[in-house]
Design goal:
With about 450 residues, the chain is mainly β. The protein has helices spanning about 5-15, 235-240, 415-425, 440-450, and strands at about 25-30, 50-55, 65, 90, 105-120, 130-135, 140-150, 160-180, 185-195, 205-210, 220-225, 230, 260-265, 270-275, 290-295, 305-310, 320, 330-335, 340-350, 355-360, 370, 375, 385, 395-400. The strands form three sheets. Strands 1, 2, 5, 6, 7, 8, 9, 12, 13, 14, 16, 19, 22 and 23 form a 14-stranded mixed β-sheet that branches. Strands 10, 11, 15, 17, 18, 20, 21 and 24 form an eight-stranded antiparallel β-sheet that branches. A hairpin with a 6-residue loop joins β17 and β18 (about 330-335).
Length: about 450
């Protein structure tokens, strides 16, 4: 019996009504427009991410990089403008013959296509300013989102998201309908697309002991969850504080009131772990408190916190315990109706095991307040409910579960898989990473050879 069949049978026997892992895993791409000088013309700089930039309807022009405080191509307010969604660089249309008031529409072609997309627009602060995000599939407009001056949140130094979703969005146009002032810019582009090859890895097993301290995880597997494959850091994935202050703003989770949310990413820093309590928009009716312990086993380098939301513990006592490289981390949060709270950890190695529990950290007897649910989220769209009970631990095994050696995901381990590994040998992030460690190396070759001739059913 192969691994996929064994785990599938185990999950079906133990999970009951819990939905299986979806066949389409989500891959997230983030572009924050940093590291390029002001005025740089954009065309194919992000081609490796499947993005090409142009000015719609005018092949002689290209969009450019602006920087905060650069009035010729960016914000006229200089240092008085609020921070951008990410860093100091942003996307802007070009200035032609000194005319800063003649907007041009920016087009972005997307290949492979996207299922959803979000980009922030800055400085909608003039009475004639309107920006429309238009999404296309095979030349047909399928979705739009609009921000106009006077909408909630607009004004000087505003930071607001434009979002669209569809089946296979292959082109978007950022349509600046009119502008009466200098300064509109676009930043922190986030794209989600389906990732259906074995380069995206596999699911991680989730188990919860039957009672506090029981330790019977192997007998209580509650589901499998897919990590979000991403090029983003854990901090970018969390998107703390923009636009909703002191809160989670990541596009891959819409938080629910009175729920604690657990989700994972896999990116350049390794596995990211995200714990988000409650929601920010719309406001939660009662706020809450939560104390959580995260323990990491089998990771000699340990992990580190990437986001502290919020850094202040409103209820007194410690807010965070654990330094970079540690294996035990604690967090204590108290939040108001306006906001969510949470924490992000990064640097978790494939092969490690993590344990999570709501446990008393500050001897306050306020371990769980204002929360009624605990749910783990999969990048395939599923939600795995967990029992919200003090000291009742959840275990996640950070080892991808799939069909070992089937690197092209065709259901067979054969010469095609071997050729892919050999063709990408030594190249990070390429198809052929059978072990899920981010590299194509001897371990992947051995995995294919050890399973050569097998089938995945």
């Amino acid at each position: 019996m192969n691994t996929r069949m064994m785990i599938g049978m185990l999950a079906a026997a133990c999970v009951g009504a819990v939905a299986p892992v979806a066949s389409a895993q989500v891959q997230q791409l983030v572009v924050d427009f940093e590291g390029l000088p002001e005025g740089t013309e954009l065309s194919t700089q992000y081609a490796k991410l499947g993005l090409t930039f142009s000015i719609n309807g005018d092949p002689s022009l290209l969009p450019i990089i602006g920087t905060r405080g650069a009035p010729r191509v960016g914000f006229s307010g200089g240092g008085t403008d609020a921070p951008l969604a990410s860093g100091d660089g942003f996307l802007a249309d070009p200035v032609i013959d000194g005319d800063e008031f003649d907007p041009r529409d920016i087009a972005i072609d997307i290949d492979p296509p996207a299922t959803s997309l979000r980009i922030f627009v800055h400085d909608i602060d003039g009475p004639d300013e309107t920006v429309v995000l238009r999404a296309f599939e095979n030349g047909v407009e399928v979705a739009t989102d609009t921000i106009a001056f006077g909408d909630p949140g607009t004004g000087n130094a505003s930071i607001l998201p434009l979002e669209v979703s569809g089946t296979a969005i292959d082109r978007i146009i950022l349509d600046v309908v009119d502008t009466g002032s200098v300064g509109i810019g676009f930043d922190f582009l986030t794209i989600n697309r389906n990732c259906v090859t074995s380069a995206c890895g596999g699911a991680f097993e989730v188990a919860q002991e039957s009672s506090p301290g029981a330790g019977d995880f192997d007998d209580n597997v509650v589901g499998l969850i897919l990590p979000f494959e991403t090029n983003a850091t854990a901090a970018e994935f969390y998107a703390y504080n923009v636009p909703e202050g002191d809160s989670w703003n990541g596009p891959n989770l819409v938080p629910e009131a009175d729920r604690s949310h657990l989700l994972l990413s896999r990116g350049p820093e390794g596995v990211g772990v995200f714990i988000v309590h409650d929601r920010a928009v719309p406001d939660d009716p009662d706020g809450g408190e939560a104390e959580v312990i995260f323990e990491l086993i089998g990771d000699p380098d340990g992990a580190m916190r990437a986001v502290e939301d919020d850094p202040e513990n409103q209820e007194g006592g410690i807010a965070y315990v654990g330094e970079p490289g540690d294996s035990v981390f604690m967090s204590s949060h108290g939040w108001l109706q306006c906001c969510s709270d949470g924490v992000a950890y990064t640097g978790v190695d494939i092969g490690a095991t993590g344990y999570f529990s709501f446990s008393d950290v500050n001897n306050t007897n306020d371990t769980i307040v204002g929360l009624t649910e605990w749910v783990a989220y999969s990048a395939g769209g599923e939600q795995v409910p967990l029992v919200l009970e003090q000291d009742r631990r959840v275990r996640i095994v950070f080892v991808p579960i799939g069909c070992p050696g089937d690197v092209n995901d065709d259901g067979l381990i054969d010469l095609a898989d071997l050729n892919i590994v050999l063709g990408n040998f030594g190249v990070p992030g390429k198809i052929g990473d059978a072990t899920g460690d981010g590299l194509v190396n001897l371990a992947d070759l051995n995995t294919v050879l050890a399973n050569f001739g097998g089938a995945c059913e």
